Amino acid sequence: MKAVVLVGGEGSRLRPLTLDTPKQMLSVVGMTMLERVLDHLYAHGIDEAVLSLGYRPDVFLNAYPDGIARGVKLKYAVESSPLDTAGAIRFAVEEAGFDETIVVVNGDVLSDINITELVEYHRSKSAEATISLVPVDNPSAFGVVPCDQNGRVIAFIEKPAIDQAPTNMINAGVYVLEPSAVARVALGEQVSIERWLFPRLVEAKSLYAKPSDAYWIDAGTPESLLKASMDILYGKRMVSQRSEGLAMATADANEEFDDSSATWCFIAEGSVVSESAVLRSCVVERGAVVSSDCIISSSVIMAGAQIGAGSVIEDSIIGQDVVLPEGAMVLGGSVVARFAELRPGCRIVGERVPA
Prior knowledge:
alpha/beta; Spore Coat Polysaccharide Biosynthesis Protein SpsA, Chain A; UDP N-Acetylglucosamine Acyltransferase, domain 1; 10-stranded mixed sheet; 8-stranded mixed sheet; 7 helices
């Protein structure tokens, strides 16, 4: 099968990490977010995909000059102006020349949803489009999808008030679409799949949905990106067997080692960590340097970052190529990007730097 991967957004929720890098090209435990999405597609027999590009398409093109990533052959559809989700899908399909049933995924969603079963379900219903659903505690930030007993979608309610949501089953951002569904969108039209196309498919009674209890996370915020990294470290979601790096288990001194007391870290190849540094539940990406006497816990150190001696980092993300000065403290869900101007001994708590 073939797929459309939506990667055109500016990643505003992840700023400042995305000021010059598309969010799907941020690394998540040794692989870019996009590569983790492509791995998932490849595992379900999808070996060709078109990337729907808008923001910084050059980053994707330069990263995969041979047009292949994780075994998936890539095509590129670069929008001259934003087309929203449905418009982007129509444009991407046209550019790639796809004329068959396709899978569509959002490039900032990491999941273990069984795409093979979703496609089989879609075909069994003779659906024009099928959505994968997942349960959430608070559906008000998502598209809520109530269905009848046969799985046919009876409404599509985008971001309802929490007390007005008829169900906690939400749109997981994984779709199967027939060419007829895609063709409902005029080429070049700027329309949303959630607000424009899905309601029309509901009216046509040709939209179905399939619930899933698989791992799922929208990794488009610093909090969820950090959580996704910790989930991979601790095996809460499927981990690619082709990741490059070292998974390292550590335990506190004087504590008898076993799996329950261990904390896991990922140390990428090509990174340098001082022997006197203390790391607990953290990710250190390729080319990063962690100097002496640092204490880092529940955090991500992105590629090329340099962490000055004696720094303390907790529950935070240090972006690509950041130079963190000696004695810095970065705490409480902070995000520091490469454009930050920092002084030795600085203290950053719950902030995004630069703002």
